[in-house]
Write a structure and sequence with these properties.
- The chain has 3 domains: about 110 residues, Rna Polymerase Sigma Factor, Chain: A; about 60 residues, Arc Repressor Mutant, subunit A (Orthogonal Bundle); about 70 residues, Arc Repressor Mutant, subunit A, CATH 1.10.10.10.
- The protein is built from 13 helices and no strands.
- It is mostly helical.
Length: about 260
């Protein structure tokens, strides 16, 4: 990512003056440097962000992707350039503190949430072990909720809240062919096919003799039994079965001619 792309992606960060952070020069927002100089500082120190991200990532590669660390560092670099005032200290030293501090702060917040979730998972496991030891079988959700003294809805909420957090790069998480991102609606060609089939069926039904069309409609569309249809028509069930068989044969022939 270059500086120009980052500015277009994060215009609010590029413009605002950030609040003071660790390593900030005194009264840093009083006389900010000119806009072109800020752009130059950011462009010249993007390699610094990448280097610090690589160093931090080597110690916590299982917790976060390096690309995410670079993104956090780039935000901190822009904020550092906005807040920097030349008081005799090199910008690289000041920016390095801001960038590294932002990455560590993010990891600290993430690890705190992960530790809390892990503690809850241990509590859940201990409760489940005690309940199942008494029952001699796997515990149900209702039994777990009763043992914890909470409603079932709250139990589900707590279980969902303490699930482990998995960090994935967006490039690996998103896939056009992945089922998670698939459109649940039928494909366009399937919708067209279904519409065509329905139109053909209506056209063929319209060409059947009235009694045959009525028998098929009552049997297939309304779910009526052969005895019910027989009473409706005033004939025997055997006759209705014969009419249905003849209607289906005629309908298949008509559909074959329409396709």
């Amino acid at each position: 990512m270059n500086a120009i792309t980052f500015f277009h992606t994060h215009p609010d960060i590029a413009r605002r003056d950030s609040p003071p952070r660790r390593g900030q020069a005194p009264d840093a927002t009083a006389d900010n440097i000119a806009e072109p100089d800020r752009h130059r500082l950011i462009r010249d120190h993007m390699a610094l962000v990448a280097r610090i991200a690589a160093q931090v990532h080597r110690r916590c590669s299982a917790s976060i992707e390096r690309a995410d660390l670079v993104q956090i560092g780039m935000t901190a670099l822009v904020e550092a350039a906005n807040a920097y005032r030349d008081c005799g200290h090199a910008f690289s030293s000041y920016a390095g503190l801001r960038v590294r501090g932002a990455m560590i702060d993010h990891l600290r917040r993430s690890s705190g949430a992960a530790r809390s979730a892990a503690r809850q998972r241990r509590d859940f496991a201990a409760t489940r072990h005690a309940v199942e030891a008494g029952l001699g079988r796997p515990a149900t959700v209702l039994e777990m909720a009763d043992a914890m003294g909470i409603p079932v809805a709250e139990y589900h909420k707590r279980v969902a809240a303490c699930q482990p957090i998995t960090h994935l790069a967006i490039d690996s998480a998103y896939d056009d062919r992945a089922p998670s991102f698939a459109d649940k609606a039928p494909a366009v060609e399937e919708q067209i096919t279904e519409a065509q089939r329905a139109a053909c069926l209506r056209g063929a039904m319209a060409q059947l003799p009235e009694r045959e069309a009525l028998v098929l409609d009552l049997y297939f569309a309304h779910g009526r039994s052969l005895d019910d249809i027989a009473r409706h028509l005033g004939v025997g069930a055997a006759r209705v079965c014969q009419i249905k068989r003849e209607a289906l044969l005629r309908l298949r022939g008509l559909l074959a001619g329409l396709v």
